[in-house]
Amino acid sequence: MAKVLVITGTVSPIEKSYSIALTKSFVKAYIASHPDDELIELDLNTAPMASKTLTRTNQTEYWNEQDAMEYINQLKEVQKVIISSPMNNFNVSGLIKNYLDHILLANQTFSYKYSKKGDAIGLLDHLKVQILTTQGAPFGWYPFGDHTAFLKGTWEFVGAKVCEPILFAGTKVAPIMQMSPDEAVATIADKITKAAKDF
Ligand SMILES: Cc1cc2nc3c(=O)[nH]c(=O)nc-3n(C[C@H](O)[C@H](O)[C@H](O)COP(=O)(O)O)c2cc1C
């Protein structure tokens, strides 16, 4: 029985959120094919650490027990992570960025100690990760902003095996903008079901 951490990081109202609809659809399909697994939900809106930005004044206490170690330990105790993020200003949401800033801690989730020059060693190599992303524009409109690739590279940096991300792009353009999040996500139901089964 695997423990699966489901991280969501949108600031949109739940019922209007495409990334939440995508996550719910993936989780539903996942449970159907992995009925014995335990799912742990982490909505970053409810985690105070995800609202804390690293600054000069909080640097010394930023990676404290409650804000950082608790979440790093959580990652060490689960086998899989499903993480969803919308694109906000060409990147992941601030909630997701603050979460990553807390868990990307040297000698806890990665290490330079025993590596060849310049290469880091990921310490979360037990993890399998599924990335679920959304963005208002079709893919490629902003070549300088690829939050999906950023997330993939970041999880690979800590040693995780990252499955092919699912990006739901173009939520702000027709025809998707005329659909509810559930209707929109239903258009890629087969892709979601297959990815969830294989995860
Ligand atoms: C503050 C904010 C910034 C956004 N920035 C971008 C952006 O840079 N590029 C883009 O394509 N869409 C952008 N969007 C649109 C969202 O990515 C899009 O609506 C997405 O579906 C939101 O996912 P959600 O419904 O889960 O919040 C932005 C939305 C918000 C609220």
Task: Kindly describe this structure.
- About 35% of the residues lie in helices and about 20% in strands.
- With about 200 residues, it is α/β, with parallel strands linked by helices.
- It has one domain (about 5-199): Flavodoxin domain (Rossmann fold), CATH 3.40.50.360.
- The strands form 2 sheets. Strands 1, 2, 3, 6, 7 and 8 form a 6-stranded parallel beta sheet that branches. It has a two-stranded antiparallel ribbon with strand order 4-5.
- Strand 6, helix 4 (about 145-155) and strand 7 (about 160) form a beta-alpha-beta unit.
- The chain is globular, with a radius of gyration of 17 Å.
- The two termini are about 15 Å apart.
- It comes from Spiroplasma clarkii.
Average of pLDDT? 96
Number of strands: 8
Number of domains: 1
The proportion of strand residues reads 15-25%
Q: Helical percent range?
A: 25-40%
Discrete helix count = 6
Please give the radius of gyration in angstroms. 17 Å
H/E topology pattern: EHEHEHEEEHEEHH
| Main sheet characteristics | 6 strands, parallel
Q: Say which molecules are bound, naming each kind only once.
A: flavin mononucleotide
CATH H-level homologous superfamily name: Flavodoxin domain
Top-tier CATH class: Alpha Beta
- Give the CATH topology: Rossmann fold
- CATH level-two architecture: 3-Layer(aba) Sandwich
Overall outline: globular
Structural class: alpha/beta
Calculate the terminal CA-CA distance, rounded to whole Å: 13 Å
Low-pLDDT windows of residues: none
Catalytic activity: N,N-dimethyl-1,4-phenylenediamine + anthranilate + 2 NAD(+) = 2-(4-dimethylaminophenyl)diazenylbenzoate + 2 NADH + 2 H(+); 2 a quinone + NADH + H(+) = 2 a 1,4-benzosemiquinone + NAD(+)
EC number: 1.6.5.-, 1.7.1.17
Keywords: Flavoprotein, FMN, NAD, Oxidoreductase
Protein name: FMN dependent NADH:quinone oxidoreductase
